[in-house]
Amino acid sequence: MATNPMHQFEVYRIGPEIKIGAFNLSFTNSSMFMIISAVAIMFLLFLGTRKKLAIPSKIQLVTEMSYTFVAKMINDTAGSNARPFFPFIFTLFMFVLFCNMVGMLPYSFTVTSHIIITFILAIFIFIAVTILGFVKHGIKYLQLFVPKGVPIILLPLIVIIEIISYLSRPISLSVRLFANMMAGHTMLKVFGGFVISLGILGGWLPLGFSVALTGLEILVAFLQAYVFAILTCIYLNDALNLHH
């Protein structure tokens, strides 16, 4: 019998229930895999920076490439003014990437396949960037909603569109990551179910699709972490440099 492809997204409690008032603070499988992802990141960075060799080891090379990749991303999208925010962008990119990649392991849980996780990350970025914009530019930050060169007659409509676009940032940022990870893992589960249902003789075709989809999903896991981080850099660029 094929298993329900949505069962893999179920959040369940691990250990005793912890409630404070109306809030349930129980430890869940989602919490566990977030901790696993964070520990894996720290372990990689620890091993990669423990010994700085002239001829780097594979782990040191991966660590240095990650550092260079994020540093170049920030410099290309937000400029030198955004360098103080490198630790945040690097942490964000690595966390989303490892949550995506850990979710590719058998019997694991994909943290980023839940909208509540991706939305909390996105709304935190949105609020922090907005506060930063007003702290740096004051009321002039509202010029972000008034593009240059727009005819006066169209200005009210354009301003409304710009405000709606700005307010929709956390929604688009979170839904993009959540939808891609959920859709990809659902397809993998569906084709995996076909392989089991059809058996050895008829399952070779869906098995081939499953292998191809697994490779594609690994690529998507990296690309979604990259898109999440680079969009954060673009929002940061607006707050720091007020490009409009």
Question: Would you write up a description of this structure?
Answer:
With 244 residues, this protein is mainly alpha-helical. It has one domain. A hairpin with a 2-residue loop joins β1 and β2 (23-24). It is built from seven helices and two strands; from the N terminus they run ββααααααα. The protein is 69% helix and 2% strand. It has a two-stranded antiparallel sheet. It has helices at 29-50, 58-78, 86-102, 115-137, 155-167, 169-202, 204-241; strands at 19-20, 23-24. α2 packs across α3 (86-102), α3 (86-102) packs antiparallel against α7 (204-241) and α4 (115-137) runs antiparallel to α6 (169-202).
**What would you call the shape?**
globular
Profile the largest sheet.
2 strands, antiparallel
Uncertain parts? none
What value does the Rg take, in angstroms? Answer: 22 Å
Q: How many separate structural domains? A: 1
Give the SSE string. Answer: EEHHHHHHH
The tally of strands reads 2
Distance between the amino and carboxyl termini: 56 Å
The percent range for helix content is: 55-70%
Strand content: under 5%
Number of helices: 7
